[in-house]
Amino acid sequence: MPIETPQVTPEMKNLRKNKVQSLHERFSHIYPDKKVLEVSGTSEDELGRKIRSEILEKKIPSLDIKAPVANVYRGSCLFEKGGPYPELYGLSPQKAKNDRRLKEKGSLVHYSYEDTKYPKRPRAAFYYWIYINALLENRELAEQVVKYDAFSDISCSPGGKPFGAARGAAIFTALSRMGLLEQAEDFERFRKLMSMEEQCNK
Fold it and tell me: I want to staple 105 with a disulfide (CB 3.0 to 4.6 A). Which of 50, 51, 77, 81 is the partner?
């Protein structure tokens, strides 16, 4: 049986927009001098829609193509019984997300991207490394992102997915302001930064 994709109705879209507006109004009340960007398909700002992981593209040198960050992440997963699945790079983000193999091949072991193995710990480090380097490859977008001080994603809920584009943009901006973006180009150096953050949050 095919996987059913929930339909987003106009009422749901309006509800999400109202929630974003309310959230940003509260933020601006507390931090009147700071700028916040919604990073989702609901965003009123074109930048917020462009840097979603389903839209922002990452270069894949060996294939001489670009693919959405979300597809690169999913296609690089190696599970107990299968993977990686580079063929997902060329699919639509929705089709890649709904590929049954991502849920039926056991637990995640590690990631495999461009013939290199990447560990699954710290949690989400590989995802953010892909995301941040995709922004580095899209300088025009990156220059706009660092003008913001905070990022939101109305589609994320407490206890939901452990990573997302809004947090990726926040990490990118923080590293930029600390002069550490160069370290993010190398996975091992970036992993150490993420490990430090993980320890601080415990």
Answer: 81
Q: Tokens in use for 12? A: 């749901």
Q: Are residues 131 and 191 in the same domain?
A: yes
Identify the bridge partners of residue 65 per DSSP, sorted by sequence position. 60
Tokens of 53: 């992981």
Task: Express as a percent the part of the chain with pLDDT over 70.
Answer: 91
Q: Encoding tokens for residue 198?
A: 């993980």
Examine residue 23 and state whether it is found in any structural domain, yes or no. Answer: no
Both 97 and 149 in one domain: the answer is no
Which of the residue ranges 5-9, 47-51, 98-102 would you say has the lowest mean pLDDT? 5-9
Q: In what order do the strands lie in the sheet with 116-118?
A: 77-79, 108-113, 116-118
**103, 130: one domain:** no
- Picking from 43-47, 49-53, 97-101, 119-123, which range would have the lowest pLDDT averaged per residue? 119-123
Q: Rounded mean pLDDT of the chain?
A: 92
Task: Examine the domain organization and report whether 107 and 83 are in the same domain.
Answer: yes
Q: What value, to the nearest 5°, has the Cα angle with vertex 172 and ends 171 and 178?
A: 90
Domain final residue, candidates 82, 100, 118:
118
Domain of residue 80: give its range. Answer: 58-118
Question: What Rg, from alpha-carbon coordinates, does the chain have?
Answer: 17
